[in-house]
Amino acid sequence: MTETPRELLDLARDMVERPPVRTHAVWPRAAALLARQALEAHLDRYWHGRGLDMDAVSMRAQLICLPEYAPDAIAGEAAHAWSALSSACHVHAYDLPPTATELEGLCASVERVIDGLGAGTD
Amino acid sequence: MDDAVLDLVYERLDREPIEGGAEVLVLAACHGSEALEAQLAGMSAAPTRPAAATGTAEPPGAYLRSISVQGFRGIGPPARLDLAPGPGLTLVAGRNGSGKSSFAEAVEFALTGTSKRWEDRSAVWREGWRNLHAGSEAARIEVELCVEDESRPLTVGCGWEPGAELVACESRVTTAAGPSSVDELGWRVPLSTYRPFLSYDELGSLLSQEPSKLYDRLATILGLEGLVDLARTLRDARTARERLQKGARDSVKRLLPLLGAVDDERARAAAAAVKGRTWDLDMAELALEGTVEAGDPAGDLAVLRTLETLTGPDEVAVTVAFQALRRALAEAAAVADTDAGRALATAQLLGQAIDHHETCGDGACPVCGAGTLDDRWLEGALEQQARLLAESGAATAASETVRGAARAARALITPAPAPLRREVGVDCAAALAAWHEWSSAPDEPDRLADHLEGRAPALRRALAEVRAQAEHQRAEREDAWRPVASALRDWLPVARQAQAATPQIKLLQTAETWAATAVGATRDERFAPIAAQAEDNWQLLRLQSNVEIGSLTLAGTATTRKVVLDVRVDGTDASALGVMSQGELHALALCLFLPRATMPESPFRFVVIDDPVQAMDPARVDGLARLLSRTAATRQVVVFTHDERLPEAVRRLGIAATVIGVIRQPGSEVDVRIQLDPLERALEDARAVLLTDELDGRVAPRVVPGLCRLAVEAACSERVRRVRLERGDTHHAVEDELARATSVLARVALAVFDDAGRAGDVLRYFDNRSGGRYADALQALKRGAHQPVGCDLRDLVRDTALLAREIAARP
Asked: For a pLDDT cut of 70, what percent of chain B falls above it?
């Protein structure tokens, strides 16, 4: 079975708020991976709700299309959250893992995007 | 004022003596301005050279062993950073806000009781030192240091009760021998002289300042503050005196017109005394006291005072005189008709005739005309006169009494005193006329007596008027003088101080010049090796910078002090600070700082550098890594860094270093652990997630592929950087290429084929190499970062590890 975007986001938040002892240095990246997947999964649902097939389209392209369908503020926040989370999920330049505060902010961002976009059926 | 400065001053005085008076001032100024003032006021004895100050033992060398922090700054629950005590490079990596800097601040605070980065900040910053999450709990810092020649580490600790102020804590030092203190260890001075701490803020502020500030900062690093303070203390003392003198001179400018406006000889004398360049303050003081006319009896005031005392002939004496005269006259008249009177009259007549004969010679008698006056006659006349005078007796006595009384009466008649003729605002005409009358006395005794009786009262009346006028006149002058005198009186002590200041200023100037020379000479001595090393360091750090350091000197004093930093840009001379970027300035500051902190005389074998990398580009980070590595050969170098650039450079350049990761979790819980390279770390992380039972079962399938992909990407980046940088590509070009290869296959293509464009060939390439396992793994990673994967996660981690290590290990 596949988790819903909100379930994934909750998992990400759990990771930030209550990192399991054994994962002490993993949790920042793990949380980033989960939060990003929550955002991606929700976008997927959104496009489906709109009757659009975006499966083969890269995330970057999807985010570029988003302002055509959703309010600019939401689309902008989605793009920003995704790129910030992505940089935490890749070996990018010389960044160290994001801090708990940054991750909390990014999770809140993802939640606003989820709330703001809705299921795409309205 | 610490002993080190006093020692230095004595040492320099030995080499470069100055005159005794100035030397005493220099030594007094070592103890601050109060001591200097006391010395100048002559209230303290000449300072004696402290015997104990010389030859203090060289402090033992110390290395950091651990830093434990609780409830301080970014760290809440207890956290401990273990360090290998000994030369070597340790990198402590953590994001901004991870708490890594709190460790750096904690060491600095425990040892120095402050932190450079707080000094210039607002109170809010200093008051917010307690960790918020630690709430009101106790805070604690404990730093363990291994000191040479000591079998057990010593600890420097600070502890705060709940609610205590930051500054309320004094560091406690515990050694094997028992409790001690930073001072007792002899560390107080070296901590400022060789300052083994440097933060990003400090590096930044070091060079980006106006020339004089920059000079001061460098001078601080050179440990010249004491001498600079000394020179400043002397200068302050001198300028205070010059201000005093200027004030006194300005007062004179106000005082002189006041004095000039008063028609008073005291004012004139005072004005004459203070008019010139050098003031005769004693004279001014005499004038003020009104005793100025003591040397000038003809002064107006003296005249007025004399006039005030003029009473004329004494009334009683006059009365007595003219009555005595009249009485004598009456008695003489009474004896005139007696024999004695007649004998006297005849004798007098004979006397006149004898006089006549003596004058005119022989001749006929002028009285009778019949006889002849000749020698024979004279003989008889003299004989007769003597007989007659003997017979006259009482009559002669009476005549003598009259003459005596007349003499006494005339004695009362004196000429008009000179003061009456002076123009001092008193009308003396009537008095002079009366006096003139008085002094033109007749000769005849009877008229003389009348004269005395008649003229004396008029003269006395006239003089009474003169006295009244003189008194009035003098009162007026006093009234005019009083306010001026008051101003003069107020000014005099200031003027005395100002006058006394002149020789002091001379001495102070001598002392000041000496101090300035001492600052300059000590500065040059101490700076020469630093400049040499800094230039050497810059050679390592500059790498692709076209800025080349020419010479580095400190020059000038006081307001002209500056750092002369000659650089060459592309071979052309330029003024350094104008052409250098922020990053270059930071690098330069570090070049300057390291030699100072690692001087052989320093008891600290460690250097703590907080975030030196911030404004540096990757190329310079390589240079920094080499510089730190070189320093680490003989020193314990602990570097706090906020990103991966320095650890990456250290790994790539094969520099031996321990990398420690600091991560701050919610609640300010700070996690510290030895860090592996990014590849091994990602694999470790993936395994940790797999093996953590308490983790929600939905997490691993979502997270493990992403972590595996990180491992592959890290391996690829490592290989790409190594190959390309060795080939001579610029850092910038390499990072650009890596950043463009966003997909995992492009990254692998870049690493394997040296061409990100061949991403499509990657899967086929690996199909042939490992029975398809690598290709399967790569497929899973490609998808799995976004969606859960269906394959066995343990297999995925195992295959990823093999694949990633294979890529990283490629030659």
From this structure: 90
Q: Give residue B540's pLDDT.
A: 79
Total-model pTM: 0.56
Distance of alpha carbon B357 from alpha carbon B506, whole angstroms = 90
Chain A residues closer than 8 Å to B673 by CB: 24-25
Query: Hey, what's the torsion of the CAs at B682, B688, B694, B697, to 10 degrees?
Result: 60
For the stretch B2-53, pLDDT in tens is 567 788 888 888 888 888 788 888 888 888 888 888 888 876 776 677 654 4
* E strands in B47-193: 62-70, 79-82, 88-93, 139-147, 154-160, 172-175, 178-180
**Alpha-carbon gap, residue A110 to B780, rounded angstroms:** 25
What's the pLDDT score for residue B116? 60
**Cα(B717)–Cα(B750) distance, rounded to whole angstroms?**
9
**Residues B47-84: pLDDT tens digits?**
677 654 444 445 678 889 899 998 888 888 888 898 88
Q: Rounded distance, CA B462 to CA B474, Å?
A: 19
- What pLDDT does B622 receive? 82
What is the C-alpha to C-alpha distance for residues A45 and A42, in angstroms, rounded to an integer? 5
Residue matched to tokens 């008698």? B365
- Single out the residue of B60, B61, B53 nearest to residue B27, CA to CA: B53
- The single residue listed with the structure tokens 């707080």 is B118
Residue of B663, B699, B735 with shortest CB distance to A34: B699
Residue B381 vs residues A53, B390, B772: alpha-carbon distances, Å = 184, 14, 189
User: In B24-110, at which residue ranges do the beta strands (DSSP E only) sit?
Assistant: 62-70, 79-82, 88-93
Instruction: Report residue A82 as tokens.
Output: 């995704």
Chain-centroid distance, C-alpha A6: 10
CB B721 within 8 A of CB B713: no
Count the neighbouring beta carbons within 10 Å of the beta carbon of residue A105.
Answer: 14
- Mean pLDDT over A93-106 rounds to 77
Q: Which residues of A touch B (CB under 8 A)?
A: 2-3, 7-8, 11, 14-17, 19-20, 22-30, 33-34, 36-37, 40, 59, 89-101
Q: What per-residue confidence (pLDDT) applies to B443? A: 80
Structure tokens at B635: 């020193």
Of B96, B713, B787, the CB nearest to A90: B713
Per-residue pLDDT, B344 = 81
Chain B residues with CB under 8 Å of A36 CB are 786
CA distance B144 to B150: 13
Number of C-alpha atoms within 13 angstroms, CB side, residue B365? 14
Residue-level pLDDT at B238:
93
* Chain B residues with beta carbon closer than 8 angstroms to that of A24: 663, 665, 671, 673
- Contact in structure between B398 and B364 (CB atoms under 8 Å): no
> Do the Cβ atoms of B688 and A29 come within 8 Å?
no
Of B187-191, B232-236, B318-322, B716-720, the one with minimum mean pLDDT is B187-191
Task: Give chain A positions within 8 Å (CB) of B742.
Answer: 90
- Cβ distance A89 to B671 less than 8 Å, yes or no, reads no
Q: Is A71 within 8 Å of A42 (Cβ atoms)?
A: no
Amino acid at position B670, single letter: V
Q: Residue B567 in 3-state DSSP?
A: strand
Q: Is B688 on the interface with A (CB under 8 A)?
A: yes
Q: Using alpha carbons, select from B595, B649, B647, B644 the residue that is nearest to residue B620.
A: B649
Whole-number CA gyration radius for chain B: 56
Q: Note whether B733 contacts A: Cβ–Cβ < 8 A.
A: no
Count of beta carbons in the 10 Å neighbourhood of residue B297: 11
Lowest mean pLDDT among B215-229, B448-462, B715-729: B215-229
From chain A, pick out residues whose CB is under 8 angstroms from the CB of B96.
99
User: Contacts of residue A98 in chain B, CB cutoff 8 Å?
Assistant: 95
